[in-house]
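Renewal narrative, Specific Aim 1. Our central claim is that a sequence can be written position by position from structural information alone. The example that follows is taken directly from our test logs and has not been curated for this report. It begins with the structure tokens describing the chain, in the order in which they were read.
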């Protein structure tokens, strides 16, 4: 029997490499990288010139404090708006979106929408 989980990870990795050849972030216009696991979603702004994470956010940041069940798609939108809020404090307005090999759909799209509503420009 084939290891379907391993094959799925390999497909995501191949797509991510393909995306990363076209996208790179700088200090002025960092890369907004999204990673989605089965339970959580993470987003960070990365300066690829120095290989440094400038700002990060995840659903773990506010799920611990609220202790309330939130639907995954709503949590993803909150992550996007939280990241935009932190980026504004770091004086970052423009970003390049990196979907991380995932389809631009569902939770990944919700992070992007939340970041846009928070004031980030793609």
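The sequence written for that structure reads:
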């Amino acid at each position: 029997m084939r290891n379907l989980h391993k094959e799925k990870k390999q497909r995501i990795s191949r797509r991510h490499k393909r995306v990363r050849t076209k996208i790179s972030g700088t200090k002025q216009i960092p890369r907004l990288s999204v990673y989605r696991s089965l339970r959580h979603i993470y987003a960070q702004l990365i300066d690829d010139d120095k290989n440094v994470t400038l700002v990060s956010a995840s659903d773990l940041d506010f799920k611990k404090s609220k202790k309330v069940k939130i639907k995954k798609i709503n949590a993803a939108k909150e992550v996007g708006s939280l990241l935009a809020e932190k980026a504004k404090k770091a004086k970052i307005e423009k970003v390049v979106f990196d979907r991380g090999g995932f389809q631009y759909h569902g939770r990944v799209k919700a992070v992007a929408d939340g970041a846009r509503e928070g004031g980030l420009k793609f």
